[in-house]
């Protein structure tokens, strides 16, 4: 009798699990969804999505499904059903219909990491307001009038330090360089003078687990990531409190933090300390991480392609030749004249594909290529499948800056979305491109360098340098 009861219960359990699996794999919907697989319940196809792969290819996860299902397919990642688009026309439509049919979306785990008060969580007028706050800091006008000189000086100081050591790991050192300038610019933070908080270390902990499986258990990368964010937010919040309680009255904005505090004190603003602190966190994170990754990739590509390095060096030596004084910093006019440099930058970020996917949520039912995507569904734009598409780029896996000759170098398009698109075009893109150009100028005109080891790249799915990129560097003698 007991054996029959156990057997009966097991049968019921198996049927229940089978039913759950079926319901997960065949969700009820009036929509005509693209073909695909949602994998196992809750887990979905997350493990396949996070499987490491090498740089020079479209992600195998996506390539395999495109060949099977077409340019639009259904999947499930970290418990979320997602329609993936690899179609340039569809991608562009998604960006252009921001806040009309689509809105920005991040998974629960990602929002938890970046903060519910983050600019990433806002839509419509709220997003526009926060974006305008950031533009006060990184607009082309402010870059030209106020930031270029400080960025130039910070970069020169970093190069001097690197050459004094003789050898550096490019990713870490360039991240330190950009972070030092951004932290000073935003909140007058100096790591060498900080008494209580290691802000750079907290961000490093945060970044190490940013793109990881969202399991919050001590010892996991995700848990360390959360702790890194917590520590960084404490340092930023402490800076706000210290500044707000200071007896010194502000007569002018000395840094971005002062500007935010004045904005908070405006009775008509929606800004509060929590939102402002989270805004500082996102600015610091986005500014130094993506920029240092691009710097590292550019260094690797130049090392691997002497013909590109020769052409780039020629452009920058010509800039020096036309100066009346050799030791002055880069001027805005010189920066705007760096045509080949911007071709190198565009080609670097095209191949780097730093952002593995851009997510949007459907606000109302929409038809995409004959499929009906219902309200509430998540779609993911895949930049790499466009950037590495042989129909759009001849020999797409080759590093060839000359492919950009005669083309628009400063805007996004259907074929180029390294900085996003639409109203969500990366607000810090101009800052990143300026920093890259300044770095390249001093690299090719003032220093002798060569890559000595490292340079291997994997994605899981974010771009990583498991062995770093090590560079031997020394100052050129006049």
UniProtKB/TrEMBL annotation:
Its cofactor is heme. One of its GO terms (cellular component) is membrane. Pfam families: p450. It is a single-pass membrane protein. It is found in: Membrane. GO terms for biological process: brassinosteroid biosynthetic process; brassinosteroid homeostasis; sterol metabolic process. One of its GO terms (molecular function) is monooxygenase activity. Keywords: Heme, Iron, Membrane, Metal-binding, Monooxygenase, Oxidoreductase, Transmembrane, Transmembrane helix. InterPro entries: Cyt_P450, Cyt_P450_CS, Cyt_P450_E_grp-IV, Cyt_P450_sf. Heme binds at residue 426. The keyword Iron applies. Belongs to the cytochrome P450 family. This is Cytochrome P450, family 87, subfamily A, polypeptide 2.
């Amino acid at each position: 009798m007991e054996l029959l009861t156990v057997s009966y219960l097991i049968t019921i359990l198996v049927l229940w699990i089978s039913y759950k699996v079926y319901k997960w794999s065949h969700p009820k919907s009036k929509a005509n969804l693209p073909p695909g697989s949602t994998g196992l319940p809750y887990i979905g196809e997350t493990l396949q999505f996070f499987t490491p792969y090498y740089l020079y290819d479209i992600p195998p996860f996506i390539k395999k499904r495109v060949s099977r299902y077409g340019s639009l397919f259904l999947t499930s990642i970290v418990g979320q059903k997602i329609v993936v688009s690899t179609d340039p026309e569809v991608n562009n439509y998604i960006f252009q219909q921001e806040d009309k049919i689509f809105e920005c979306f991040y998974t629960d785990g990602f929002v938890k990491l970046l903060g519910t008060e983050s600019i990433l969580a806002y839509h419509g007028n709220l997003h526009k307001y926060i974006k305008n706050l950031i533009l006060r800091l990184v607009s082309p006008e402010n870059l030209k009038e106020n930031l270029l000189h400080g960025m130039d000086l910070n970069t020169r100081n970093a190069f001097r330090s690197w050459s004094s050591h003789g050898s550096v790991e490019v990713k870490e050192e360039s991240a330190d360089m950009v972070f030092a300038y951004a932290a000073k610019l935003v909140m007058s933070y100096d790591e060498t003078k900080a008494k209580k908080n290691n802000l750079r270390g907290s961000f490093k902990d945060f970044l190490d687990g940013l793109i990881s499986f969202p399991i919050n258990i001590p010892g996991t990368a995700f848990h360390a990531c959360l702790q890194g964010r917590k520590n960084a937010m404490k340092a930023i919040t402490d800076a706000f409190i210290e500044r707000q309680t200071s007896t010194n009255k502000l007569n002018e904005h000395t840094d971005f933090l002062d500007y935010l505090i004045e904005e908070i004190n405006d009775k008509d603003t929606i800004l509060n300390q929590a939102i402002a602190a989270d805004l500082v966190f996102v600015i610091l994170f986005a500014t130094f991480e993506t920029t240092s990754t691009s710097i590292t990739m550019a260094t690797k590509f130049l090392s691997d392609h002497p013909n590109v390095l020769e052409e780039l060096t020629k452009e920058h030596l010509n800039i020096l030749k036309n100066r009346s004084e050799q030791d002055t910093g880069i001027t805005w006019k010189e920066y705007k004249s760096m045509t080949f440099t911007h071709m190198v930058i565009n080609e670097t970020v095209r191949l780097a594909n730093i952002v593995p996917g851009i997510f949007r949520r459907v606000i109302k039912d929409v038809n995409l290529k004959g499929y009906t995507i219902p309200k509430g569904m998540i779609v993911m734009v895949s930049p790499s499948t466009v950037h590495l598409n042989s129909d759009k780029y001849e020999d797409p896996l080759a590093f060839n800056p000359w492919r950009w000759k005669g083309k628009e170098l400063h805007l996004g398009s259907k074929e180029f979305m390294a900085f996003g698109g639409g109203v969500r075009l990366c607000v810090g893109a101009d800052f990143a491109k300026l920093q890259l150009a300044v770095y390249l100028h001093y690299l090719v005109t003032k220093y002798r360098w060569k890559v000595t080891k490292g340079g291997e790249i994997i994605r899981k799915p974010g771009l990583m340098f498991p062995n770093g990129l090590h560079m031997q560097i020394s100052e050129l003698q006049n």
